[in-house]
Design a protein that fits this description.
Length: 205
């Protein structure tokens, strides 16, 4: 038996070989598997029988769609705008969605900061969005965050796209533990500790 099949339509980015007719020949069986197909794609399939005289006519065309599969990661993950306390993150859908993308899972985690923060800064926060952008706000000034995005279809999540981004600087809080003492009749001695929330690199006092 000879099975001919060709791709008709796909949600993924495919090359010309997808639409090219391919064939498989099997012997002494009446069933087989076609492998290496593109997930969530439509294929035309025909089967013909062969004797020593030659090949007979093909069967009527069967049109079938493969199931959804794991999507590829979102592409072009970038920060298009930032302030001292927020990041505007955008991305493009996967080149190989392998199904219908239902939503995106966005996580962000604090990685590095000059400020005095509690443990929540280093904990991962999650958001589910249906669009290809998100506004992350309430962040620490001049701090590094790891942002990841996964595409999710009916089969499951993709690998993650990752970026590391720093928020902008802001004005610092006041210095702490300010100490003033009389040095002599014409001078005073001052000392202090840096702000607990420098919100950037302290250049001068």
């Amino acid at each position: 038996y000879r099975i001919e099949y060709s791709g008709v339509e796909s949600t993924s980015s495919v090359d010309s070989s997808f639409n090219k007719v391919q064939d498989v020949t099997v012997y002494n069986v009446t069933s087989t598997f076609l492998t290496g197909l593109v997930p969530f794609s439509t294929y035309n399939i025909t089967v013909s029988a062969t004797t020593s005289v030659g090949e007979g006519p093909p069967s009527s065309v069967s049109v079938l769609m493969t199931e959804e599969g794991t999507p590829s990661a979102p592409s072009d993950l970038t920060v298009t705008n930032r302030t001292s306390t927020s990041l505007w993150v955008e991305w493009q859908p996967p080149l190989f969605p392998h199904g219908i993308i239902e939503h995106y899972l966005v996580t962000f985690t604090g990685v590095e900061t000059l400020n005095t923060v509690n443990e929540s800064f280093y904990q991962t926060s999650e958001d589910l969005v249906s669009s290809t952008s998100i506004h992350l706000y309430g962040l620490e000034p001049y701090s590094v965050y790891e942002v990841t995005v996964r595409a999710i279809n009916g089969f499951g999540p993709s690998d993650e796209a990752v970026t590391m981004e720093r928020t902008q600087e802001d004005v610092p809080s006041a210095p702490v533990n300010v100490f003033v003492a009389v040095a002599n009749s014409t001078s005073l001695y001052l000392s202090w500790d840096p702000p607990t929330m420098p919100n950037g690199i302290i250049l001068s006092y």
